[in-house]
Amino acid sequence: MLMRVFDTSDYDRSLRRRRLVAFGLLAVGITGILCYLFLIKGSDVLPDFARGFYLGGASGICIGAVFLLVRVTYLLSNRSAQKKAKIKEQDEREKTIVNQAFQFAGMFTFFACAASLFVLVAVSMAAALAVLCVVAVYAIVWLIASLYLSKKL
């Protein structure tokens, strides 16, 4: 489903899907802010950094969702801007740059997590398991994406 959101074969439809994603992100961010206000703010159970994480993470998600929503709404209402954005997104050079950047970031993240496991196992088993789960999720998502794309392309 997420891969279909960024499919630009029908750009108008893709923009409408992105608007739905923006609303979903906004709902997640608002949920985080509400959790902070009603569950975490007055609680002494969590340390300060954890409470700050809730507020900062939820605020960041809300701000990103609003920016995405404004941009997509602008593109849906302005045909000339939509045409320019579509040309830019479908440009082969832009696609190559984005794909190589994602590939490099994914490889770097994978190997950095693998290397950090050697340190974390000696320091904290819980942290090592968390990083190991990140590596496992990355591998599973890569496998699913690979299978999906092999059938689609």
Q: Can you characterise this structure?
A:
- The structure is a single chain.
- The model has no long low-confidence stretch (mean pLDDT 89).
- With 153 residues, this protein is mainly alpha-helical.
- α2 runs antiparallel to α3, α3 crosses α4 and α5 packs antiparallel against α6 (125-152).
- It has helices at residues 2-5, 11-40, 48-77, 79-90, 92-123, 125-152.
- The chain folds into 2 domains: 1-90; 92-153.
- The protein is flat.
- The longest helix is centred in the last third of the chain and has 32 residues, at 92-123.
What keywords describe this structure?
mainly alpha, 89% helix, single chain, 2 domains, flat, 153 residues
Compact summary:
The chain is mainly alpha-helical and 153 residues long.
Please give the number of β-strands.
0
Alpha-beta content class = mainly alpha
Number of domains: 2
Helix-strand pattern: HHHHHH
- Give me the Rg, rounded: 20 Å
Question: Helix segment count?
Answer: 6
Largest sheet: none
Secondary-structure map:
Elements: H1 2-5, H2 11-40, H3 48-77, H4 79-90, H5 92-123, H6 125-152
Helix pairs in contact: 2-3, 3-4, 5-6
